[in-house]
Amino acid sequence: MSDKRFGLPPVGDRPISAARRSVKILFIGQPDDVEITIARLYHCGFCRVEDWSRPLPYGQIQQATARAPGEILRIYKRSMTL
Questions:
Q1: Do residues 41 and 47 lie in contact, with contact meaning Cβ atoms separated by under 8 Å?
Q2: Distance (Å) of CA 15 to CA 9, 11, 48
Q3: How confident is the model over 4-63, as pLDDT tens digits?
Q4: Please, what sign has the CA dihedral across residues 78, 61, 26, 57?
Q5: Coil, helix or strand for 20?
Q6: 36 exposed, middle or buried (CB, 10 Å; 0-12, 13-18, 19+)?
Q7: What are the structural domain ranges in the chain?
Q8: Global model pTM greater than 0.85
Q9: In 43-71, which positions are buried (b, 16+ CB within 10 angstroms) versus exposed (e)?
C-alpha cells in the first residue's frame, strides 16, 4: 500500500538500508498528561509502555534530544481531552 500524499512507495518496494535509522518521538508536558498519552498509544497498539525512556526533568531534554547531522525536528501538538 503506498501513500501518495507523502510520495511513499509500496511497503515491499521500499529500499532496505544497511544502516539502522530511527525516528524519535518526543513528548513534553505535565507528567500526568505524558503518562496518559503513552498509555493511550499502548492501548491503540502503537507502542509498549516499557519501551519509553524514564521521565527526564526539563533540563535534561537538550541532552536527550541530541541530533545527528541532517536530522530535522517536527512537533505534533494535540490538545488533551480530559
A1: yes
A2: 9, 9, 27
A3: 565 655 656 556 565 777 788 888 888 999 999 999 999 999 988 999 988 888 778 777
A4: negative
A5: coil
A6: middle
A7: 26-53
A8: no
A9: eeeeeeeeeeeeeeeeeeeeeeeeeeeee
Give the cell for residue 20: 539502522
With cell 507523502, the residue in question is 6
Give me the amino acid identity at 56.
L
Distance separating alpha carbons of residues 80 and 36, to the nearest angstrom: 10
CA dihedral 37, 26, 28, 32 (to 10 degrees): 30
| CA 1/CA 13 separation, integer angstroms | 10
- Could you identify the residue written with the cell 533540563? 59
Q: Could you tell me if 61 and 28 are in contact, meaning their C-beta atoms sit under 8 angstroms apart?
A: yes
Is residue 42 left, alpha or beta, with left meaning phi > 0 and alpha meaning psi from -120 to 50? alpha
